[in-house]
Write a structure and sequence with these properties.
The protein has 230 residues and is of the alpha/beta class. It is 45% helix and 20% strand.
Length: 230
């Protein structure tokens, strides 16, 4: 009952807030081209930026991997209320093997997976190897996604979960497709691809932050200025 009530309340709260956002989307034609060819695609954004995708991809039949934790049960019910297809498990914890097999099969059939490569427990903004593994095994490209809103609230949690304020500016940017070669099998090669994917997500999110009008002080608190100087 608790899961049902909470998921119901969150669902309707999001249905009220998200349509008020002034959203601008850049580069979505890259995703459409892949989908129209009947190929699977993996959309990657950070764990703290999932509110807008949950709502915007409502009833498209996209897939999401939800952890088997207690918090995951809330997420699973919310995603399903929005018309998502879900598989319980993750690529790095309990249920990993079955979840990976299910998603790989769906990607080969042309499904779209929206995934958070630093979830479900972090560390923040670090791509775990599961996302690279899924792209490699399925042959599907990874498309990095950067999302920002302003004004917004950032939750005091490990993922700095972003909650947009009503009528906020919102920017959603798709990066270029990244194809993981099938022969990149060593730990070192896998790690290099994780780092590259992570850098691409950081780049498009930093662009989204600037275009959404996030003040420089806000960027510094999130480490963006340090990253940009690096």
């Amino acid at each position: 009952m608790k899961y049902r009530v909470v998921s119901f309340l969150v669902y309707w709260l999001l249905r009220l807030i998200i349509p008020t956002l002034r959203l601008r989307v850049v580069g979505e034609e890259r995703v459409r081209e892949i989908q129209e060819d009947g190929k699977g695609v993996i959309l990657l954004t950070w764990h703290g930026r999932t509110i807008i995708p949950i709502c915007r991809f409502r009833k498209r039949g996209y897939w999401a991997m939800i952890s088997t934790s207690r918090d995951g049960e809330y997420q699973n019910r919310i995603f399903q209320r929005f018309g998502w297809q879900t598989v319980r498990g993750s690529t790095s914890a309990r249920g990993a093997v079955q979840a990976a097999l299910t998603i790989t099969k769906q990607l080969k059939r042309g499904a779209t997976l929206a995934h958070t490569p630093d979830g479900p427990r972090g560390p923040i903004h670090v791509v775990q190897p599961g996302a690279v593994f899924l792209a490699q095994k399925s042959g599907s490209p990874i498309i990095p996604v950067g999302i920002s809103t302003y004004p917004r609230k950032l939750a005091p949690a490990w993922d700095q979960y972003m909650v947009p304020m009503p009528f906020a500016r919102a920017v959603w940017i798709y990066g270029e497709p990244i194809y993981i070669p099938s022969d990149a099998k060593s730990h070192e090669e896998q790690q290099l691809w994780c780092e590259r994917v992570g850098a691409e997500i950081m780049a498009v999110e930093a662009q989204a932050e600037r275009e959404a009008g996030v003040p420089e002080a806000g960027l510094k608190r999130q480490g963006w200025s340090l990253w940009r100087r690096a």
